[in-house]
TrEMBL record:
InterPro entries to which the protein is assigned, alphabetical: DHS-like_NAD/FAD-binding_dom, THDP-binding, Thiamin_PyroP_enz_cen_dom, Thiamin_PyroP_enz_TPP-bd_dom, TPP_enz, TPP_enzyme_TPP-bd
Domain Thiamine pyrophosphate enzyme N-terminal TPP-binding: 13-118
GO MF annotation terms: acetolactate synthase activity; flavin adenine dinucleotide binding; magnesium ion binding; thiamine pyrophosphate binding
Domain spans labelled Thiamine pyrophosphate enzyme central: 231-343
Source species of the chain: Methanococcus voltae
Entry EC number(s): 2.2.1.6
Name of the protein this chain belongs to: Acetolactate synthase-1/2/3 large subunit
Classification of source organism: Archaea, Methanobacteriati, Methanobacteriota, Methanomada group, Methanococci
Amino acid sequence: MDNSNSKEFVGKLINFLEYNDIKTIFSYPGEQILPFYRAIENSNINLINVKHEQAAAHMADGYARITNETGVCLVTAGPGATNITTGVATAFRDNSSIVCFTGRCSSKYIGTEFFQEIPMDFLDFEEGSYIFESNDENLNTVKNVFEKSFFNRKPIQINISKNVYNSLDKSSSLLKITKNYKSYEKYINNHNNSELCNNIHATYQINNMNNTKNSKNLEINEYFETLKNNEIVQNSKNPILLIGQGIFGQLNYSEILQINNMLKNSKIPIVTTYPARGIISEEDEKCLGMIGRRGYFANEHLKNCDLIINLGSSLSYNTILESWDDIKSKIVDLNVNINNISDIELIVRNINDIFEKCDIFKKYNKIYRNNNHSLNKIVKFGDYSKKVKELIESIPNDSIIVTDAGNHTVFTSLFKTCMLPKSIISSHSMGTMGFGLPCAIGVKYGCIDKSIDREVININGDGGIQMNIQELATVAKNNLKMLIIIMKNSRLNIFCDLDNPNYVKLGEAYGITSKLVKSENEIKKCVNEYLEGNGPLILVIECEDESLPKPEN
């Protein structure tokens, strides 16, 4: 279907999405979105039919996390919209950019208790955009939402009434979504939307700095000139650079990979948050590992340093623990916007200039310079952790591991040495059970669309897998090459026992080759079979229950 000469809004909308290189949309069909759904089917956009709307949101989330671009999902009104709530909330808490198109009855029926008609603002965790009537500015509204979601790193709903799709629209569909912050800031200022401009900077508050009211407008070099005059910075003898996922900025995937090499030149030690792991290889002597509730070794150095330079971390509860009040006074936030890879190079160079005379690395014992020191916290390996360890050692080092929520996530985090960014993707703020499988599908499509040549490994517990297990049908239908792990300990953590189905037969019923693994000695052989194959494989790994190592509080 060629929409280039369309006079209807739906045709203009499809043309706009194609023009802006939106390659994949995750959707479940319904009456109130039927014109949009049919138009996508006949476009160049890859329409992925999911089996539950919650999964559509998680897939869009996974797509966004691996590509650092905006994921898109489409669901109908009423129950279709309510079903994506958990997926949208998960993306909101983890700062993931997704745009959710939702359906609505024709505008004349709004407020009349029409079929599937409910107030739609329950999805506006960040904000929502509502299109009820024909308007030549509607496409511009869609463009603005994509930009807000991209720069805010938040999910935003676009709710469109059914009557709008086939309405006449005279606007141009050749509107380009800007992905450069400076261009976006200029647009905001020209449209007198200073409030939005301030919101964009909300996660870049400055601590421990005086006269920084206008620092957000400074160029990077000017900003560091200001930073050099900070008393805490001037007196620091033992600084640490804390990196969070905000360092990804507006960079694309290939640019994010380049950060890995640039940080090797850092003259001060680096610690990372959980989602930023691998931004510098954890085998690099500059990297002290991950901080937070599962940080262990890196936490000790964070407590003993005299300055923490924060680049891209929101300093959440999982990163800066409640008991670390004294640490907060050591933090200086870098208030810079990252538009391209040269910005990262400039930041590293400026940090090195400030701390050029600090011979810090003599303070650190080389044996403990990577995250594997965390393993010392597990005094005795149990059956569960041994099998996770064997699995991690059997898959390629550059694999993208997508976990669900549960014990397997903790053990995976402890055993995995992340050498590249995006090595582990988890629901780290919400701990959403049922996240893993659909998110991994979204990650896989992101890899396909952006030519990312890394294996996608999905690790689940036997509790979480059942919450979105229907998406095995999506994997099978599209023959997605993914390794799907189910850690079967027949236990829901400390809460209760689980009565499990026969996962091998269940996987085969969906049309996916499935194997039962009882011994850790079988794992490597099964992984190799998957790597040599061309399709998905489910490994059901039977294991005994095992208590987790105690986290820091």
